[in-house]
Amino acid sequence: MPEVKETEKKRWSRAETAEKIDGFEQAYQRTPSQRRLAEELEIPRTTLQHWLKRKATIDADPEVVAFFESPAGVVFLHRLVLAAHFVMTLVGPCGIRLVCLFLELSGLDRFVAASYGPHQRVSVAMEEAVIAFDQEEKKRLATGMESKQITVCQDETFHPETCLVAIEPVSNFILLEKYADSRKAEEWTNSMEKATEGLPIEIVQSTSDEGKGLLKHVKEDLGVHHSPDVFHVQNELVKGTSVTLARKKRQAEQAVAEAAKKVSHRREEQAAYFNGQCGSECPPELDQQIELAQKREREARQALETAAGHRERAKQAIQGISVAYHPYDLESGAARSAENVASSLEQHFFRAGGGGH
Q1: pLDDT for 202
Q2: First vs last Cα of the chain: how many Å apart?
Q3: Of 117, 196, 209, 315, which residue is the least packed, with the fewest Cβ within 10 Å?
Q4: What is the pTM of this model?
Q5: Can you tell me the mean pLDDT for 45-57?
């Protein structure tokens, strides 16, 4: 009796359940006795009856039920659910709820739970397994890795806690991704030391934004070259040029409006003179005055066109820096030499600053 009670309390896994049912169904063809077969399979008869009743009431094609309730089907279903979690929640941004929706729409919810709770536990377990695998593989691969110098791309994200991220851009390998209490330089330095511990690498350059903590970490603690990311390069250029260029354009627009107003005023005077409304007060040299006003209007419009052109060329030059800043040709995919990148950047900076107009 003690053995029976212990058996009754056992929590059977899906794989064990499928194996027991498969064993029963095969043996039942030779020995059509539930009680006897339950004893041979070492399971309570009531448990066996519950399993058989559940299988018989599954609302699906009998052949589909037979497969997914078999040992091979349970293994396949387990792999399928894990693959869905891996692809949707880790590789892609879908999230757990869409995994549940996938199971419902595919009809697999008849064979596996599709509610949020169970799959949230699966997702957590998978994340922990990936982290453990990362740590094991990093140690294993570092042993045979040749020493190399690298650049790191560093940034801070917030969702909602502060998360420090560092990636090696050539391989796209994530060196660091961890929540931190602050964005201070010492926090960055300590985190990077732990992340690169045991790796035969030397950081020679960092690309990041202009955060004070990051800059201090890179320049003082790491003691390496800092390259601002392209957004901040462009942002500084916009701040340095946009106000001046916009002001010149507005001044040119105002000059055009005033010149056009002057031309209109002179023409009105001329019309009044010919209509005899001015008497002797209307000067006879109105033609020359109108011509002079029109000349000044043309000059003002040319100045406006020049100012607008300067502003547009500066805008295009600043936008073009994102392409010039790239180490690979975006059309051919070929690597660009340092000289080519430097020359292209110099041309864009020159045009952004007003040169070559």
Answers
A1: 94
A2: 98
A3: 117
A4: 0.56
A5: 91
Give the SS3 label for residue 177.
Answer: strand
Percent of the chain with pLDDT over 90: 40
Task: Kindly give the pairing relationship between strand 173-179 and strand 225-228.
Answer: unpaired
Cα Rg of the chain, angstroms? 38
Closest CA to 168 of 148, 182, 189, 143: 148
Amino acid letter, 79? R
pLDDT, tens only, 90-104? 999 899 999 999 999
Distance CA 286, CA 220 (A): 73
CA-nearest of 127, 73, 77, 121 to 103 is: 77
- Of 26-30, 216-220, 231-235, 322-326, which one has max mean pLDDT? 216-220
SS3 291: helix
Q: Is 160 in a helix, a strand, or coil?
A: coil
The Cα-based distances of 93 to 69, 225, 312 in angstroms read 31, 34, 38
For residues 185 and 201, give the distance between their C-alpha atoms in angstroms, rounded to a whole number: 21
